[in-house]
Amino acid sequence: MSAGVATMHPVVLLGAYGLDSDRMPADEFQIRMAAANKLMDERGWRAIFAYGDATEHRELAWLTNFIPRLRWALALLPRQGAPRLLISMSPRDVAAMKLMTWIGDVHSGWSWSEVFDPWLDEFCAREGANPAPVGLLGRELMRPTFLETMKASAGARLALEPATGVLDSRLRFRRPRELVMLREACHRVDAAADAMQRAWRAGADGMSAAIEAERAARAQAAHDVRVLFSVDGGATLLPFYGVIADRSDPMLAYIAVKYMGYWADAFVTFAQAASPALAAARQALDALLAAARPGADGAELARAATPAGLAPHPVIGEVVGHRIGHSLAEGEPLAAASPARLEPGGVYTLRVGAADPAAGCALLSAMIRVSETGVEVMRKSG
Question: Model-level pTM?
């Protein structure tokens, strides 16, 4: 069961991004590294190697604040000693990339034998263990050639242990500084949706309205923007793939905006003619938010999210939500057949949708923060 929405991602992340020391000061990463050190002590690891690429980088970003603009990055985080960050960019880009992380020792990974091997030699000499156990985050993202290159350098000196998911207990609970970034991301996704609606109601076709949404998000320093839009009354959602000058009523869209490393997303529906599907979706979203409480499971949320008398929209299927943060879709999806629950400390995106030959199509969503005592609505589609 897939939780996330399939979108097209940029080849190179060109949006604004850096380490904002006022919002994410050094002590935030000291807290995160303390959690990583505790994990190393519990597992007997001498280091954690955290890998990520431009598409997926959740653990890497959480630990280092670094997000690859293209290709890959590997953080070498020893229990004792200085960390090092290797990035798949040219040496001339290193100075600029240092502005994205608290790690001071940043190198181009293109000179692998000059930047990984000496660090590993020093690490192994200091640790003395043979092999030294190392937790490997992001192994499932690595290309086989990259993994083989790293194994060839390590030889018998390292015991690389898969570590996928070991940080989930930390990543699912959002700290106050993370909530600030997530609220800022919500403001930007709403600004993008407003720009899309204004353009569409002024007569723009679906693609032109989607371009205005991305323009608005980029103008507010979005790091990444993903947009899907409809030109067939909402039966399907399309990415940019060429000139599409079609327009339909209603217009459905999915907008996702990343700001300072954190995602917010929105399903929106705009209609000029009366839309029974949109009216039903609004009622369903209100019912879903009323049912959202700490500990609510996927089954009860799915019951509340079903538009009366209408089939769910195929874009979301049976999934009514999931956690969101460094990745667009995190953790188990919330659905009738899923054991996932709304956990205090988590931030979730919830969605409803309807598709009916007579009533039409609609998609709406909201983002919530779950606390011990209740739920805060961070944003909501109208």
Answer: 0.93
